[in-house]
Amino acid sequence: MFTTTITPRFYETDAFGHINNTVITGWFETAREPIFRMFNPDMQIKNLPLILARIEVDFVGQIYYGQDITIQSFIVGHEAWQNNQCLARGKAVQVYFDFATQHSSRIPEQYREQLAQHIMSSP
Amino acid sequence: MFTTTITPRFYETDAFGHINNTVITGWFETAREPIFRMFNPDMQIKNLPLILARIEVDFVGQIYYGQDITIQSFIVGHEAWQNNQCLARGKAVQVYFDFATQHSSRIPEQYREQLAQHIMSSP
Amino acid sequence: MFTTTITPRFYETDAFGHINNTVITGWFETAREPIFRMFNPDMQIKNLPLILARIEVDFVGQIYYGQDITIQSFIVGHEAWQNNQCLARGKAVQVYFDFATQHSSRIPEQYREQLAQHIMSSP
Amino acid sequence: MFTTTITPRFYETDAFGHINNTVITGWFETAREPIFRMFNPDMQIKNLPLILARIEVDFVGQIYYGQDITIQSFIVGHEAWQNNQCLARGKAVQVYFDFATQHSSRIPEQYREQLAQHIMSSP
Fold first, then answer.
1. CB distance A14–C18 less than 8 Å?
2. CA–CA distance, B29 with C9 (Å, rounded to integer)
3. Taking an 8 Å Cβ-Cβ cutoff, which residues of chain B contact chain D?
């Protein structure tokens, strides 16, 4: 599991007074940074061999400005927690892209081992 | 079906040179505006009795800056087209919220009829 | 003068119920697209020889969701109008960058002529 | 002086490969949070008696994804530092708004004293 702390930003609220739903996919992308670094240690971002194929987000509760959010990322998903409540839960499907062959391919074994250490039951 | 045209904005690109995935949920929210107006004709947005419960997006192809996007919204989903190709496809599940009872409830009949005119097979 | 119409997006509102200030710089960037096209007609965006050096925005009034915005761009500035009121006014200073010499340089004559057609008194 | 650390987010990059200019005003708003708390300790954000009247940003250098940013905020300005270089510098003019009279007014003495502790020469 990876854990990322996000401080909600005021401009991320909307006229309903809570964090707008469109913000959450950006927070979850941010929470995947440790995975980006795993596949691309020098962070030459254009070489990142991962393509995002699908996202799913369930909005479980309202998220408010003024308190930090903890995002727990499993291989298969993300959960956003505030005040000990899980308020959004999502899934991002990333596909490994082999620049040499210009095709998607199976994630190489070396990464599978690193990722395996973070596998938990899906949120 | 509702149709919305979006002109991609330069700040919506990312370092890969295409439109960043986190932007799409905002475009799809924008494409739901006709539905917001249907439930809330005077656009006093705080009275909008719809809660977003879930989004799903499949990224089917790269979307680039420089050409307009057409978003076709069905009751159950959205599709983003550029150059006659469907490049992203999504689903937003909205729930009707009854302010009087403070609970979710079945969408009232009057709206069901209006929405029915836009039903198409799910994208 | 260039004129661009922007439909405010719901996620661009904030908890005060109006459009968040940080959104305006993105709208003004969008309104500069005709200038990007002038310097880079095929929109191969990485070849755009313009660097943004400075922005200034004065927030003159509240901008609300639900009605279109007209942005009038002069060479030296932008104005955002809604309901016949100018609600934000800004300036963007762009610098011409010569890829060959890797230095900023004077805007070439051919562009100066095109730009001259849009010069108006600064907003 | 207030100091805020921002981790650049991948979606904040643009097709030039660096952080898009429109992002910076959001970072600077985030860096003003200690000031929002000073004027509104319980963070009931709708009671915040501050209105943003003007922003100015000078883009001094490129900001890249992959390393943290330190934002130093003085009463009159902000500076964004990465790798010991100041890469953006900005000013935000906030006006005190008195809800009782519905007019802007002089910042009350109690806040002036707190703010005075953070005054430094303008960046």
1. no
2. 8
3. 10-11, 13-15, 17-18, 20-23, 65
- A54 vs B contacts (CB less than 8 Å): 56-59
Residue D98 phi/psi, 5-degree rounding, is -95, 110
pLDDT for the residue numbered D123: 41
Query: In this predicted model, what pLDDT tens digit does every residue of B24-82 receive, in sequence order?
Result: 999 999 988 888 888 888 877 777 888 888 888 988 888 889 888 888 877 667 788 88
Q: List CB contacts of B37: < 8 A, sequence separation 6 or more.
A: B43
pLDDT in tens, D66-118: 888 888 877 667 788 888 887 877 877 778 877 777 778 888 888 888 777 77
Distance between CA D35 and CA D39 in Å, rounded? 6
Amino acid at D46: K
A29 vs D7, D10, D30: nearest CB: D10
Most D CBs within 10 Å: which of B10, B63, B64, as the mutation test of the D interface? B10
ipTM above 0.95, yes or no: no
CB-CB: which of D11, D30, D45 is closest to A26?
D11
